[in-house]
Amino acid sequence: MSEQPVPVTVVTGGSRGIGAAVCARLAADGHHIALAYHSDAAAAEAVAASVRETGRRCLAVRADTADEADVDRLFERAAAELGPVTGLVNNAGVSGPVGPLADADAAGIRRALDVNVVGYLLCARRAVRDMTRTGGGAIVNVSSAAATLGSPGEYVHYAAAKGAVDTMTVGLSKEVARQGIRVNAVAPGVIRTEFHADPARPDKLADGIPLGRPGLPEEIAGAVSWLLSPDASYATGTILRVAGGR
Ligand code: NAP
């Protein structure tokens, strides 16, 4: 039997939270990884070192996913150092200002839309260009349950951005299916990470979650890994909600 090539996956926002858990899970499931981070080089290097301990290859690249040149550099380094990219996890996200929309500043709203929407589009565009040449692949967009809940009083602009992520997932999946590229999303509910401006937010919301607790990053990582895997070969355009019933 011929040996399957090792998948090479780009994970944005891999330095902490959900992205770091995705890196750990993908390494365990046999991927080489190029992880992108924005500011915390030490955290990114620590994740990369733990991936390498599993025997997989990993590079940490500083890249602002909202910046076209940074995105191109990220994918170029991934392909040059790890081999043709077969997977993308669009995960780097920020909430922007917290509170009612009436109080939100325009620069903060723009930044949230830039990272969560333009950044996802730029990374997906580059992945599609590369995967079309190299024989296909899979993209997983980390969306949010906020896309359907709307996040009133917290960050309506962020929820709207994640609504756009769901829409791009559906549209792009149809656009590139015949190129051998699958595009899906995972929509997490409230997950314990440093994403929350108020660290107590996950516990404060626990009562309103049918399963009675916030989720853990590892509980999202398994869903991401499945969507990238051959087990999900007939899944495309899917938005998999992993939100404790919320
Ligand atoms: P997190 O703990 O705040 O981590 C965010 C990650 O994104 C960090 O690695 C950060 O890098 C990176 N990042 C931020 N802006 C970036 C940029 N412009 N370019 C590249 N990297 C950037 O967040 P998280 O909770 O893991 O969230 C991950 C994803 O899940 C996001 O898309 C978020 O919207 C989504 N989500 C989270 C929750 C939740 O409850 N936590 C729920 C639903 C959806 P540095 O540390 O280097 O800055």
UniProtKB/TrEMBL annotation:
Q: Does the keyword DNA repair apply?
A: no
Q: SUPFAM superfamilies under this entry?
A: NAD(P)-binding Rossmann-fold domains (SSF51735)
Query: Entry's InterPro entries?
Result: NAD(P)-bd_dom_sf (IPR036291), Sc_DH/Rdtase_CS (IPR020904), SDR_fam (IPR002347)
A single Gene Ontology MF term assigned here is: oxidoreductase activity, acting on CH-OH group of donors
Which Gene3D superfamilies does this UniProt record tie to the protein? NAD(P)-binding Rossmann-like Domain
A Pfam family of the record is: adh_short_C2
Keyword ATP-binding in annotation: no
Q: Which UniProt keywords apply?
A: Oxidoreductase
State the PANTHER family in the record.
NADPH-DEPENDENT ALDEHYDE REDUCTASE-LIKE PROTEIN, CHLOROPLASTIC-RELATED, RE15974P
Q: What's the family?
A: Belongs to the short-chain dehydrogenases/reductases (SDR) family.
**What is the name of this protein?**
SDR family NAD(P)-dependent oxidoreductase
High-level lineage: Bacteria, Bacillati, Actinomycetota, Actinomycetes, Kitasatosporales
